[in-house]
């Protein structure tokens, strides 16, 4: 059953955290810190849905554990990756296009927007955490899909970090390991994770929460993920075009045709 009051409480908590993060960004003059906070928005949402529910369902510990493990790893990785680096290029572009007074505008252009998107995506967490029904096979299928996604995302990030740490790989494309089968194994991992949460919500009768994984899929594939990050990368890094021709964009699969190791792109960052 959909609990609007509880859902709105999640929004209030997320936006409070987003506001606090915006205040920190003013001191740092870097709105890119929202990337590290993005996964933590889901943690505070899940905690809100569990703590404010008089009698959390049997899935509540699973939801808290799975969201916490995913979010803390991803937030830690993004913080480590961006530590000491200038504001990311995409945020610099947003800043240029929204001057003057971007510092104020960023509150709603960046922080409130991402907080609201996270709130909508968190719908399966609300449905799963609050439902009183006993867990069933569909729940365990969701946990298994979550595990596949977490493995893809974690291994892909580790492989990329190791690749970039070797000076001999400067200027070369990362087309090894999982990156050989999909150009965005980290995004595919995220996709699996959120559809895994939806299977748990569906098992609890929360079919209506499908808007959450659908929105996440749209962001990953059409908005801030694959489409945005590859919009001009072929022009900026010509050798990447061959990587695009021979490697699946999102869902893993065999190479479309053979090819030598080529020069070009570095990591395409996490969107959220």
3D structure, described in words:
With 272 residues, the chain is mainly α. The chain has two domains: 1-132, no CATH class; 136-266, no CATH class. 65% of the residues lie in helices and 0% in strands. The chain has helices at 4-28, 34-51, 60-82, 89-97, 102-121, 123-130, 137-165, 185-203, 211-222, 226-229, 233-236, 240-246. α2 runs parallel beside α6 and α8 runs antiparallel to α9. It is globular, with a radius of gyration of 19 Å. The two termini are 29 Å apart.
Compact description:
65% of the residues lie in helices and 0% in strands. With 272 residues, the protein is mostly helical.
Q: Enumerate how many helices there are, as a single number.
A: 12
Question: What distance lies between the first and last C-alpha atoms, to the nearest angstrom?
Answer: 29 Å
Q: How many strand units?
A: 0
Helix content: 55-70%
Radius of gyration: 19 Å
Instruction: Let me know the average pLDDT.
Output: 90
Largest sheet: none
Structural class comes to mainly alpha
Classify the beta-strand content into a percent band.
under 5%
String of helices and strands: HHHHHHHHHHHH
In quaternary terms, these chains amount to single chain
